Amino acid sequence: MAPGGLTADGLRFAVDEKVIVDGVTLAVAPGRTLAIIGPSGCGKTTLLRLIAGIERAQAGTLRFDGQDLAGVPAHRRGFGMVFQDFALFPHLNVGRNVAFGLRRRGGGAEDDTKRRVAELLSTVGLEGFEHRRVGSLSGGEQQRVALARALAPRPRLLMLDEPLGSLDRGLREHLLLELKEILTDLDIPAIYVTHDQFEAFAIADRLAVMRAGRFVQEGTPRDVYSEPGTEFVARFLGFENIVDGVSDGTVVHTAVGEFCVRARPGAVRLLLRDEGVAIAEAGETGAATGVHSAMAFQGSMVRVEVATAEGKLWFSLPAATALPPIGGKMAFRVPSVQVIDAG
């Protein structure tokens, strides 16, 4: 790992013998963003609270730039936090909200504070908003103000807890691109917590999937997406088509069809990926079969449901694809198949 930044080793936190964070180890270097994804209740927010110093770990170590943070109170760690609900002060205008962190830390002369506020509002695309009431802003604008306020005191590390969770999909996608640029330019470590895998893919340099207090897989977003390590990770990333099969070493036999994939002989679980799925001719060698049972139009794509002896499978196909009628037999090719561990 590059020198500096945040490191944690074996962090553990429990309440009334219920383990919430279970031996988490991580490292985030300056200028890099770690995204942590997982279902509600898996320990993501509690992990942030441990890093922030709001909660204290019962085991493990936490260091920043080599300094042990044990015993360092939250207000002396120099970390910034952005929340899902913005947490802005409705009685203060935009400029005073952004300046709040500076004044708490003794931000210096009034002119310096004004310059810093103007600089930050420019960074988040809100030039000239200093005197606007926060209640008059859109959700996206309020989230930009919250980000500017967190950045005002020049934090050593930035933590973002579901920061775009309350925004609609279109606005979220737009802000993600801007937020990625801002985080890259800041050159500080950042930790981004979300339950949305698409946000995590867009924002992260590294991605950690969390389950029941533990990191169950970590890597670059591309690597985790390309090679989900377990069925839990695959399903959390949105892969739906996982079937049982029996391998003879080079071919896996399933109730849907036969797939050429190397695996240990015996019972296996097989992930049928969406990429490159295409309609096949009836009886075509290597084609899987089922019944076309439902379809949903999604603009340039259609979502197709196929009823098989293994259960229902779902695939996205180009909208122009010629499909059999609902209730008709359907043959299809799945070029991207992976053996996957249960769990």
Largest sheet: 6 strands, mixed
Estimate the strand proportion: 25-35%
CATH fold-level topology of the largest domain: Rossmann fold
Structural class: alpha+beta
Key attributes of the depicted protein:
about 350 residues, single chain, about 35% strand, alpha+beta, 2 domains, 8 helices, five-stranded antiparallel beta sheet, Rossmann fold, 20 strands, six-stranded mixed beta sheet
Structural commentary:
With 343 residues, the chain is of the alpha+beta class. It folds into 2 domains: 6-235, P-loop containing nucleotide triphosphate hydrolases (Rossmann fold, 3-Layer(aba) Sandwich), CATH 3.40.50.300; 239-340, no CATH class. The chain has 8 helices and 20 strands. It has helices at residues 44-52, 94-104, 110-123, 139-151, 169-186, 197-203, 221-226, 231-236, and strands at 6-15, 18-28, 33-37, 59-64, 67-68, 79-82, 157-161, 190-194, 206-211, 214-219, 242-247, 251-254, 258-260, 266-272, 278-279, 288-298, 301-308, 311-318, 329-333, 337-340. The strands form 4 sheets. The chain has a 6-stranded mixed sheet with strand order 6-7-8-3-9-10, sandwiched between helices. A 5-stranded antiparallel sheet has the order 13-12-11-14-20, with no helix packed on it. Helix 2 crosses helix 3, helix 2 runs parallel beside helix 4 (139-151) and helix 3 crosses helix 4 (139-151). The mean pLDDT is 91.
